[in-house]
Here is the input.
Amino acid sequence: MKIPLLDLNAQLETIRVELKAAVDEVIESNRYIMGPKVTELEQKIAEYSGAQYGIGVSSGTDALLVSLMALDIEPGDLVLTTPYSFFATAGVVARLKAVPVFVDIDPDTYNIDPAQIRQWFQKNKDKASKVKCIVPVHLYGQCADMDPILEIAAEYNIPVVEDAAQAIGSRYPSKNGLKRAGAMGTVGCFSFFPSKNLGCIGDGGMVITNDGTLADKIEKLRNHGSHPKYYHSMIGGNFRLDAIQAAALLVKLPYLEEWHKGRQQNASFYDEHLNAAGIRKPKVTYRREYHIYNQYIISVPEKRDELRAHLQANDVGHEVYYPVPFHEQECFRYLGYQKGDFPHSEYAAEHTIALPIYPELTDEMKSYVIETIGSFYKC
Here is the structure.
């Protein structure tokens, strides 16, 4: 049996007719950049996430970038974030010539540890005034612990940009009620990369916020800082969302909760049946229905790479997210970090594997994944 890490064709088969009709509608309209499909998607994503405003952009990376631009992050400013995420989280900070400052993760959730954010401020009181933003990441589809992060941000009057690229629809039991990822901080950023739970047929992203002034600024920045056309009050970029991508996402959005449930059921199956010695399964910090399982991550204490070779030999798709933490990346050597500075991130990089979790997996396919892992430990 061959099990891919992700099978987009399995999803496509269920929506092919709708998807083609939506794309054809855009083609016939000749409205390829922005337009009514983008506006409709912005409204629906904002409503779904519990925010007032949505601004469609060209990618999840550009969602982060334009958000930091809108918050006036400048050269030399400090931005606190995790060393364990997709590169864009820290890359956009460096692109603005600001300084990424890393804080280690919680070893159980892989999300940034609020206690260590607090410790950083206590140890670096002389630098606190230079911190202009905190960027927590809701990694793998489970929300970071936002209440203490927001409390720290409020204490120091620092905006919070939620990197929710992997977490649209995930929920967090805040002291202020149940919240969805992206709607808790100053702004929230989504990615619609095809592999995401809500993925388009190219690239796309979204910024959501409850701040009308900030939303207006982001709208201008995504279109070279212009409004009206040819009149530029600021320097922005070309961060616009294509109408075809918006149309595809509008087809998929009504299915999203069903797809989340499929992933949650698959995670439950793995949790119940995956009992290989030493394997640590993902921790559900809040409730399973709050976790959208963009990835299902296991931690392997020994012989991770040997297990990967065994999975590959038996046609079980898998991946390592992320093999090199930011502080060990060549491009960030100038920051002065050393191996050992963030042990939990380093351990995760060296010991974790993502298993297939997409909603179309059958019990037979999941059983084969589990049996393949089990056969490795019996060798």
